[in-house]
Amino acid sequence: MLRKKIIRWLTPAVCICILCTGQVRASSVQNQLSNTGDKINELENELNRADQNISAYQQEQKILENDISTGQAKISQLSDSLDQTLAAIKEKQTEIEQTGQELKQSEKECKLQYEQMKIRIRFMYENSLDSMLTQILESGSISEALQRAEYFQSVVSYDRKKLDEYKATTRKIAETKKQLVAEEESLLELEKEQSSQLEEIDSAVNELKNSLRKKLDQIQNSQSLRQKFAAELEQQKAYEARLERQKAEEDRKRQAEIAREKEELARQRAEEERRRQQEQQQQNRNSSTATDTSGTSNNTTSSNYAASAGDLELMSAIIFCEAGNQSYEGQLAVGSVIMNRVASSSFPNSISGVIYQSGQFSPVASGRFAQALATGAGRSCMSAAQEVLNGRRNVDCLYFCVNNGLIDGLIIGDHVFY
Length: 418
Description:
This protein is an all-alpha fold. It has helices at 2-137, 142-283, 311-323, 328-343, 351-355, 362-366, 368-375, 379-389; strands spanning 400-402, 410-412, 415-417.
C-alpha cells in the first residue's frame, strides 16, 4: 500500500518537474526573443530616423543647389554687364584720347590764327593809317578806293571771325572732353560697383558650395549608417526567426512530453485501479463485486466561452500580430489555438492569461501586440476574433509557428499548426 501511495504522489510530481523544466527552457528562449524584439524595434526606429534625416538633407541639398544655380546665373549676368562696362570704358578712353588730340590741334590752330592776326595787325599799325589812306586815295577810281577800303576791313573781320571760330571750336572740344571724362568716371564707378557685387556673389556661391559639400557628406554618412542599421536589422530578424523555430521545436517537444506523461500517468492509474479491484475482489469473494468504473477523462471546456469586455480586443490584436497578412482561415486558426489553450488544463483558463503567458507569443514581448491594441486591428481580424469567441474552431491544435518544413502539422498559409 505504501508503494502505491508513493507511486500515486510521485507520478504527478515527475510530470510537474518535466513541465517546469520545459517552461524554464521556453522562458529562456522567450527572453532571447524579447531582447531580440527590442533590438529590432530599436533598429527600425534608427532606420526611420536615418530615412527622415536623409530626406531632410536631400531637401536642403536641393535648396542649396537651386541657390547655387541662381548665384551662378547672377554671376554670369554681372560678368556680362562688367564686360560691357569695361568695353564702354575702353571705348570712352579712346574717345577721350581722340578728343584730346582734336583739342590740342584746335588749340594749335587757334594759336596759329592768333599769331597770324597779330602779324597782320602789326603790319597795319607799322605802315600807319596814312599809308593805308594813301593807298586808298591813289586808287584810279572811287570804286577801286572802296574796294581797297573794304579789303582792309574784310581782312580784319576775317581774322577776328576765324579767331572766334577757333575759340568756339576749342571750347566745344574742351566741353566734349570734360563730358567724356565725367562719363568715364561714371563708368569706372559702375565697374567698381559691379566688381564688388560680383565678388560678394562669388563669395556667397563659394559658401553655398561648401555647405553643399558638407550636406552631401551628411547624406553619405546617413546612408552609410542606414545601411549598417539595415544589415543589423536583417541579422536580428534572421536571429529572431531562428529563435522562433527553436521555440516552436521546444514547444513541440514539450507537448509531446506532456502527452507521454499523461499517457504514462493514465496507464499507472489504470494499473493501480486494476490491482485495487483485484484486491477488492479477493477480499469480497462471497459477495458480488461492485466495479468502480471511475476512469480518466480529459477535461474539456465548452466552446461557449464567457468572454469579457476586453477579450475581443485582445483576441483581434493577437490575431492581427500573428496572422494579419494571412487568409481568413489562417486568422481563425490562430484564434482557435488561443481558445484551445484556454480550454486546456496545461494553460491558463482565460484569454488574457494565455496571451500574456511568459514565453508564448513573441509580439507580446516585442511590443508589437501593445501597439496593435493601441492602433486597432483590421476588420478581418476583428471578425475572426468574434467568431472564435462565439465558439467556432477550425483547428484542434495548441501550437503554431511559421512553416519551415521541420514540423509536421496542419499547414494553413505560412503557418503550421500542431
